[in-house]
Amino acid sequence: MEYSSLLKPTENLENLERQLMCPICLEVFSKPVVILPCQHNLCRKCANDVFQAANPFMVTRGNTVTSGGRFRGPLKTHRVIIDFFNTTNIQQLSRVNSALCLSRAVENHRPVKKVDHPMCVEHAEEKINIFCLTCSMPTCSLCKVFGAHKDCQVAPLGSVYKSHKNDLSDSISRLVASNDRVQLMISEMEHSCKVIDENSRVQKQMLCEQFDGVYAALEERKQEMLMVISQEQEDKNQHVRDLIKQYNEHLQSASKLVETAFQAMEEPEAAAFLQSASALQKSVVDATKGSDMPKMEMGYENMNHFLVDLDNVQEAVRGIDFGKDAEDEDEEEDEEGEEVAESEEGNSDSSD
Protein backbone atom coordinates (compact mmCIF):
# COMPACT_ATOMS: atom_id res chain seq x y z
CA MET A 1 0.00 0.00 0.00
CA GLU A 2 2.82 2.47 0.87
CA TYR A 3 4.76 1.77 -2.36
CA SER A 4 1.67 2.26 -4.51
CA SER A 5 0.91 5.60 -2.83
CA LEU A 6 4.47 6.76 -3.57
CA LEU A 7 4.33 5.66 -7.22
CA LYS A 8 1.09 7.47 -8.11
CA PRO A 9 2.50 11.03 -8.05
CA THR A 10 5.36 9.92 -10.27
CA GLU A 11 2.96 8.47 -12.81
CA ASN A 12 0.88 11.67 -12.82
CA LEU A 13 4.01 13.75 -13.52
CA GLU A 14 5.00 11.47 -16.40
CA ASN A 15 1.53 11.75 -17.92
CA LEU A 16 1.62 15.53 -17.61
CA GLU A 17 5.06 15.72 -19.28
CA ARG A 18 3.86 13.42 -22.05
CA GLN A 19 0.85 15.68 -22.71
CA LEU A 20 3.03 18.84 -22.85
CA MET A 21 5.57 17.24 -25.21
CA CYS A 22 5.59 18.01 -28.93
CA PRO A 23 5.42 14.79 -30.95
CA ILE A 24 7.85 16.24 -33.57
CA CYS A 25 10.77 17.62 -31.58
CA LEU A 26 9.96 15.72 -28.38
CA GLU A 27 10.42 18.91 -26.36
CA VAL A 28 8.00 21.03 -24.36
CA PHE A 29 5.67 23.00 -26.67
CA SER A 30 6.93 26.27 -28.07
CA LYS A 31 4.08 28.38 -29.44
CA PRO A 32 1.72 25.39 -29.71
CA VAL A 33 -0.90 25.36 -32.44
CA VAL A 34 -3.89 23.05 -32.99
CA ILE A 35 -3.84 21.74 -36.56
CA LEU A 36 -5.31 18.25 -36.20
CA PRO A 37 -8.99 17.19 -35.74
CA CYS A 38 -7.89 15.04 -32.81
CA GLN A 39 -6.94 18.31 -31.06
CA HIS A 40 -3.28 17.35 -30.61
CA ASN A 41 -0.87 20.29 -30.48
CA LEU A 42 2.36 20.92 -32.41
CA CYS A 43 5.04 23.56 -32.10
CA ARG A 44 4.51 26.23 -34.79
CA LYS A 45 8.07 25.84 -36.03
CA CYS A 46 7.85 22.03 -36.10
CA ALA A 47 4.61 22.11 -38.04
CA ASN A 48 6.04 24.60 -40.54
CA ASP A 49 9.26 22.61 -41.03
CA VAL A 50 7.49 19.29 -41.41
CA PHE A 51 4.99 20.48 -44.01
CA GLN A 52 7.62 22.37 -46.00
CA ALA A 53 9.96 19.36 -46.06
CA ALA A 54 7.35 16.69 -46.75
CA ASN A 55 5.21 18.45 -49.40
CA PRO A 56 6.71 18.49 -52.92
CA PHE A 57 3.85 20.65 -54.26
CA MET A 58 4.21 23.55 -51.83
CA VAL A 59 5.31 26.99 -53.06
CA THR A 60 9.02 27.26 -52.17
CA ARG A 61 11.70 29.84 -52.79
CA GLY A 62 12.00 28.41 -56.30
CA ASN A 63 8.37 29.43 -56.99
CA THR A 64 7.11 25.81 -56.93
CA VAL A 65 3.31 25.43 -56.45
CA THR A 66 2.17 23.17 -53.58
CA SER A 67 -1.24 21.80 -52.55
CA GLY A 68 -0.78 20.11 -49.19
CA GLY A 69 1.47 18.26 -46.79
CA ARG A 70 1.72 14.74 -45.37
CA PHE A 71 3.36 13.39 -42.17
CA ARG A 72 2.87 10.62 -39.66
CA GLY A 73 0.59 11.29 -36.72
CA PRO A 74 2.08 11.80 -33.27
CA LEU A 75 0.62 8.77 -31.49
CA LYS A 76 -0.43 6.28 -34.15
CA THR A 77 0.97 5.41 -37.54
CA HIS A 78 -2.02 6.92 -39.37
CA ARG A 79 -1.25 9.35 -42.14
CA VAL A 80 -3.10 12.68 -42.19
CA ILE A 81 -3.47 14.86 -45.28
CA ILE A 82 -3.54 18.58 -44.53
CA ASP A 83 -4.12 20.98 -47.40
CA PHE A 84 -2.76 24.51 -47.12
CA PHE A 85 -0.86 26.91 -49.36
CA ASN A 86 1.49 28.71 -47.04
CA THR A 87 2.55 28.87 -43.43
CA THR A 88 0.52 31.96 -42.69
CA ASN A 89 -2.82 30.15 -42.85
CA ILE A 90 -1.71 27.16 -40.76
CA GLN A 91 -4.54 27.91 -38.30
CA GLN A 92 -7.14 27.52 -41.10
CA LEU A 93 -6.93 23.83 -41.93
CA SER A 94 -9.51 21.80 -43.82
CA ARG A 95 -11.24 18.88 -42.22
CA VAL A 96 -9.18 15.69 -42.25
CA ASN A 97 -10.82 12.41 -43.24
CA SER A 98 -8.61 10.31 -41.06
CA ALA A 99 -9.47 10.37 -37.34
CA LEU A 100 -5.99 10.44 -35.86
CA CYS A 101 -5.57 8.70 -32.51
CA LEU A 102 -9.18 7.52 -32.58
CA SER A 103 -8.05 3.94 -32.17
CA ARG A 104 -6.13 4.90 -29.02
CA ALA A 105 -9.18 6.62 -27.59
CA VAL A 106 -11.30 3.50 -27.97
CA GLU A 107 -8.68 0.74 -27.70
CA ASN A 108 -9.84 -0.15 -24.18
CA HIS A 109 -13.53 -0.22 -25.17
CA ARG A 110 -15.45 -3.17 -26.56
CA PRO A 111 -16.82 -2.51 -30.05
CA VAL A 112 -20.57 -2.00 -30.19
CA LYS A 113 -22.54 -3.33 -33.08
CA LYS A 114 -23.99 -0.56 -35.14
CA VAL A 115 -27.77 -0.51 -35.06
CA ASP A 116 -29.37 0.92 -38.17
CA HIS A 117 -32.66 2.70 -37.82
CA PRO A 118 -35.37 0.79 -39.72
CA MET A 119 -36.44 2.46 -42.91
CA CYS A 120 -39.84 2.52 -44.56
CA VAL A 121 -40.44 -0.09 -47.22
CA GLU A 122 -42.45 2.24 -49.45
CA HIS A 123 -40.21 5.27 -48.90
CA ALA A 124 -36.64 4.05 -48.70
CA GLU A 125 -35.27 7.39 -47.52
CA GLU A 126 -37.79 7.84 -44.73
CA LYS A 127 -37.26 6.46 -41.25
CA ILE A 128 -40.06 4.65 -39.48
CA ASN A 129 -41.29 7.19 -36.92
CA ILE A 130 -44.99 6.51 -36.29
CA PHE A 131 -47.19 3.50 -35.55
CA CYS A 132 -50.43 2.73 -37.35
CA LEU A 133 -52.97 1.69 -34.72
CA THR A 134 -55.47 0.54 -37.37
CA CYS A 135 -53.07 -1.83 -39.15
CA SER A 136 -50.94 -2.56 -36.05
CA MET A 137 -47.66 -1.88 -37.81
CA PRO A 138 -44.93 0.80 -37.76
CA THR A 139 -44.69 3.16 -40.73
CA CYS A 140 -43.35 6.56 -41.74
CA SER A 141 -44.91 10.03 -41.89
CA LEU A 142 -45.17 10.00 -45.70
CA CYS A 143 -47.27 6.85 -45.58
CA LYS A 144 -49.64 8.67 -43.23
CA VAL A 145 -49.84 11.77 -45.43
CA PHE A 146 -49.75 10.29 -48.91
CA GLY A 147 -49.51 6.53 -48.61
CA ALA A 148 -51.60 3.54 -47.64
CA HIS A 149 -52.10 4.73 -44.05
CA LYS A 150 -53.53 8.18 -44.74
CA ASP A 151 -56.97 7.13 -43.45
CA CYS A 152 -55.63 5.20 -40.47
CA GLN A 153 -55.24 6.25 -36.89
CA VAL A 154 -51.60 6.63 -35.90
CA ALA A 155 -49.64 7.33 -32.73
CA PRO A 156 -46.05 8.26 -31.89
CA LEU A 157 -43.61 5.39 -31.69
CA GLY A 158 -42.60 6.30 -28.14
CA SER A 159 -46.06 5.92 -26.62
CA VAL A 160 -46.82 2.74 -28.57
CA TYR A 161 -43.37 1.43 -27.70
CA LYS A 162 -44.00 1.95 -24.00
CA SER A 163 -47.48 0.44 -24.24
CA HIS A 164 -46.35 -2.61 -26.17
CA LYS A 165 -43.33 -2.99 -23.95
CA ASN A 166 -45.56 -2.92 -20.87
CA ASP A 167 -47.92 -5.42 -22.50
CA LEU A 168 -45.02 -7.68 -23.40
CA SER A 169 -43.64 -7.33 -19.87
CA ASP A 170 -47.03 -8.30 -18.43
CA SER A 171 -47.27 -11.23 -20.84
CA ILE A 172 -43.77 -12.34 -19.89
CA SER A 173 -44.73 -12.12 -16.21
CA ARG A 174 -47.83 -14.19 -16.84
CA LEU A 175 -45.84 -16.68 -18.89
CA VAL A 176 -43.22 -16.95 -16.14
CA ALA A 177 -45.98 -17.46 -13.57
CA SER A 178 -47.56 -20.06 -15.84
CA ASN A 179 -44.19 -21.79 -16.23
CA ASP A 180 -43.82 -21.80 -12.45
CA ARG A 181 -47.25 -23.40 -12.11
CA VAL A 182 -46.40 -25.96 -14.78
CA GLN A 183 -43.09 -26.70 -13.05
CA LEU A 184 -44.95 -27.07 -9.76
CA MET A 185 -47.41 -29.45 -11.40
CA ILE A 186 -44.51 -31.42 -12.89
CA SER A 187 -42.90 -31.64 -9.46
CA GLU A 188 -46.19 -32.77 -7.93
CA MET A 189 -46.65 -35.39 -10.64
CA GLU A 190 -43.10 -36.64 -10.17
CA HIS A 191 -43.80 -36.87 -6.44
CA SER A 192 -47.05 -38.69 -7.26
CA CYS A 193 -45.08 -41.21 -9.32
CA LYS A 194 -42.83 -41.87 -6.34
CA VAL A 195 -45.85 -42.22 -4.03
CA ILE A 196 -47.52 -44.58 -6.53
CA ASP A 197 -44.40 -46.73 -6.67
CA GLU A 198 -44.17 -46.85 -2.89
CA ASN A 199 -47.88 -47.64 -2.45
CA SER A 200 -47.67 -50.34 -5.13
CA ARG A 201 -44.70 -51.90 -3.36
CA VAL A 202 -46.60 -51.94 -0.04
CA GLN A 203 -49.74 -53.42 -1.63
CA LYS A 204 -47.73 -56.09 -3.45
CA GLN A 205 -46.02 -57.01 -0.22
CA MET A 206 -49.37 -57.20 1.62
CA LEU A 207 -50.92 -59.28 -1.19
CA CYS A 208 -47.99 -61.69 -1.18
CA GLU A 209 -48.27 -62.03 2.59
CA GLN A 210 -52.00 -62.75 2.34
CA PHE A 211 -51.54 -65.36 -0.37
CA ASP A 212 -48.65 -66.85 1.57
CA GLY A 213 -51.03 -67.12 4.52
CA VAL A 214 -53.60 -68.86 2.32
CA TYR A 215 -50.90 -71.20 1.01
CA ALA A 216 -49.82 -71.96 4.58
CA ALA A 217 -53.41 -72.62 5.67
CA LEU A 218 -54.03 -74.89 2.68
CA GLU A 219 -50.78 -76.72 3.28
CA GLU A 220 -51.60 -77.17 6.96
CA ARG A 221 -55.10 -78.45 6.20
CA LYS A 222 -53.71 -80.77 3.52
CA GLN A 223 -51.25 -82.28 5.95
CA GLU A 224 -54.02 -82.79 8.52
CA MET A 225 -56.27 -84.56 6.01
CA LEU A 226 -53.36 -86.64 4.75
CA MET A 227 -52.72 -87.71 8.33
CA VAL A 228 -56.36 -88.80 8.68
CA ILE A 229 -56.11 -90.88 5.52
CA SER A 230 -52.79 -92.30 6.62
CA GLN A 231 -54.24 -93.24 10.03
CA GLU A 232 -57.18 -95.05 8.54
CA GLN A 233 -54.87 -96.74 6.08
CA GLU A 234 -52.76 -98.01 8.94
CA ASP A 235 -55.80 -99.18 10.90
CA LYS A 236 -57.24 -101.10 7.98
CA ASN A 237 -53.92 -102.64 7.11
CA GLN A 238 -53.48 -103.72 10.71
CA HIS A 239 -56.92 -105.33 10.75
CA VAL A 240 -56.16 -107.19 7.53
CA ARG A 241 -52.79 -108.30 8.89
CA ASP A 242 -54.54 -109.67 12.00
CA LEU A 243 -56.95 -111.62 9.84
CA ILE A 244 -54.09 -112.97 7.77
CA LYS A 245 -52.38 -114.10 10.93
CA GLN A 246 -55.51 -115.88 12.13
CA TYR A 247 -55.97 -117.55 8.78
CA ASN A 248 -52.31 -118.61 8.72
CA GLU A 249 -52.63 -120.15 12.18
CA HIS A 250 -55.83 -121.94 11.17
CA LEU A 251 -54.15 -123.14 7.98
CA GLN A 252 -51.17 -124.51 9.83
CA SER A 253 -53.43 -126.30 12.31
CA ALA A 254 -55.56 -127.71 9.52
CA SER A 255 -52.46 -128.83 7.60
CA LYS A 256 -51.21 -130.72 10.64
CA LEU A 257 -54.63 -132.27 11.14
CA VAL A 258 -54.69 -133.39 7.50
CA GLU A 259 -51.28 -134.93 7.93
CA THR A 260 -52.42 -136.77 11.11
CA ALA A 261 -55.57 -137.97 9.34
CA PHE A 262 -53.51 -139.38 6.46
CA GLN A 263 -51.29 -141.22 8.91
CA ALA A 264 -54.40 -142.68 10.62
CA MET A 265 -55.73 -143.78 7.28
CA GLU A 266 -52.59 -145.84 6.76
CA GLU A 267 -53.11 -147.77 10.05
CA PRO A 268 -53.68 -151.44 9.07
CA GLU A 269 -54.95 -152.57 12.43
CA ALA A 270 -58.66 -151.98 12.88
CA ALA A 271 -58.49 -151.79 16.70
CA ALA A 272 -55.74 -149.16 16.63
CA PHE A 273 -57.55 -147.20 13.91
CA LEU A 274 -60.83 -147.16 15.77
CA GLN A 275 -59.21 -145.95 18.95
CA SER A 276 -58.20 -142.64 17.30
CA ALA A 277 -60.79 -142.43 14.52
CA SER A 278 -63.59 -140.88 16.59
CA ALA A 279 -61.43 -138.10 18.03
CA LEU A 280 -59.79 -137.49 14.69
CA GLN A 281 -63.15 -137.35 13.00
CA LYS A 282 -64.39 -134.74 15.46
CA SER A 283 -61.20 -132.60 14.94
CA VAL A 284 -61.55 -132.73 11.15
CA VAL A 285 -65.19 -131.68 11.42
CA ASP A 286 -64.30 -128.79 13.73
CA ALA A 287 -61.47 -127.72 11.40
CA THR A 288 -63.87 -127.76 8.52
CA LYS A 289 -66.19 -125.47 10.42
CA GLY A 290 -63.22 -123.10 10.79
CA SER A 291 -63.96 -121.76 7.35
CA ASP A 292 -66.60 -119.66 9.09
CA MET A 293 -63.82 -117.44 10.48
CA PRO A 294 -64.18 -113.61 10.35
CA LYS A 295 -63.88 -112.19 6.87
CA MET A 296 -63.21 -108.68 5.48
CA GLU A 297 -66.28 -106.68 4.77
CA MET A 298 -67.24 -106.08 1.18
CA GLY A 299 -65.41 -102.97 -0.07
CA TYR A 300 -63.30 -102.84 3.08
CA GLU A 301 -60.34 -101.63 1.05
CA ASN A 302 -62.34 -98.78 -0.48
CA MET A 303 -61.18 -95.26 0.53
CA ASN A 304 -63.63 -93.20 -1.50
CA HIS A 305 -65.16 -91.68 1.61
CA PHE A 306 -62.09 -89.43 1.76
CA LEU A 307 -63.03 -87.63 -1.43
CA VAL A 308 -63.03 -83.82 -1.12
CA ASP A 309 -64.86 -81.50 -3.46
CA LEU A 310 -62.71 -78.38 -3.92
CA ASP A 311 -64.43 -77.04 -7.01
CA ASN A 312 -66.19 -74.36 -4.99
CA VAL A 313 -62.93 -73.47 -3.33
CA GLN A 314 -61.18 -73.19 -6.68
CA GLU A 315 -63.97 -71.01 -8.02
CA ALA A 316 -63.74 -68.88 -4.91
CA VAL A 317 -59.97 -68.57 -5.35
CA ARG A 318 -60.36 -67.64 -9.00
CA GLY A 319 -62.99 -65.12 -7.98
CA ILE A 320 -60.70 -63.36 -5.54
CA ASP A 321 -60.49 -59.73 -6.53
CA PHE A 322 -59.65 -56.38 -5.03
CA GLY A 323 -62.29 -54.67 -2.93
CA LYS A 324 -64.69 -57.61 -2.97
CA ASP A 325 -64.78 -57.94 0.79
CA ALA A 326 -65.63 -54.29 1.31
CA GLU A 327 -68.40 -54.44 -1.31
CA ASP A 328 -69.81 -57.64 0.18
CA GLU A 329 -69.79 -56.10 3.63
CA ASP A 330 -71.59 -53.02 2.34
CA GLU A 331 -74.19 -55.19 0.60
CA GLU A 332 -74.70 -57.26 3.75
CA GLU A 333 -75.09 -54.12 5.83
CA ASP A 334 -77.63 -52.76 3.33
CA GLU A 335 -79.57 -56.04 3.40
CA GLU A 336 -79.53 -56.10 7.19
CA GLY A 337 -80.73 -52.49 7.27
CA GLU A 338 -83.58 -53.31 4.89
CA GLU A 339 -84.57 -56.34 6.96
CA VAL A 340 -84.58 -54.27 10.15
CA ALA A 341 -86.69 -51.59 8.47
CA GLU A 342 -89.18 -54.19 7.20
CA SER A 343 -89.43 -55.83 10.62
CA GLU A 344 -90.08 -52.45 12.25
CA GLU A 345 -92.79 -51.69 9.72
CA GLY A 346 -94.38 -55.10 10.39
CA ASN A 347 -94.32 -54.48 14.13
CA SER A 348 -95.96 -51.09 13.71
CA ASP A 349 -98.71 -52.58 11.51
CA SER A 350 -99.41 -55.35 14.00
CA SER A 351 -99.62 -52.88 16.87
CA ASP A 352 -102.21 -50.90 14.94
Automatic annotation (TrEMBL):
The keyword Zinc-finger applies. Its EC number is 2.3.2.27. Residues 115-157 form the B box-type domain. GO terms for molecular function: ubiquitin protein ligase activity; zinc ion binding. Keywords: Coiled coil, Differentiation, Metal-binding, Microtubule, Muscle protein, Nucleus, Transferase, Zinc, Zinc-finger. It is found in: Nucleus. It holds the Pfam family zf-B_box. PROSITE patterns: COS, ZF_BBOX, ZF_RING_2. Residues 265-323 form the COS domain. Residues 318-352 are annotated as: Disordered. It catalyses: S-ubiquitinyl-[E2 ubiquitin-conjugating enzyme]-L-cysteine + [acceptor protein]-L-lysine = [E2 ubiquitin-conjugating enzyme]-L-cysteine + N(6)-ubiquitinyl-[acceptor protein]-L-lysine. Transmembrane segments: none annotated. It comes from the Eukaryota. Gene3D superfamilies: 1.20.5.170, Classic Zinc Finger (3.30.160.60), Zinc/RING finger domain, C3HC4 (zinc finger) (3.30.40.10). It is an enzyme of class 2 (transferase). Residues 326-352 have a biased composition (Acidic residues). One of its GO terms (cellular component) is microtubule. GO terms for biological process: cell differentiation; regulation of microtubule cytoskeleton organization. Signal peptide: none annotated. Residues 22-46 form the RING-type domain. PANTHER family: E3 UBIQUITIN-PROTEIN LIGASE TRIM36-RELATED (PTHR24099), TRIPARTITE MOTIF CONTAINING 55 (PTHR24099:SF17). May bind and stabilize microtubules during myotubes formation. This is Tripartite motif-containing protein 54. It comes from Petromyzon marinus (Sea lamprey).
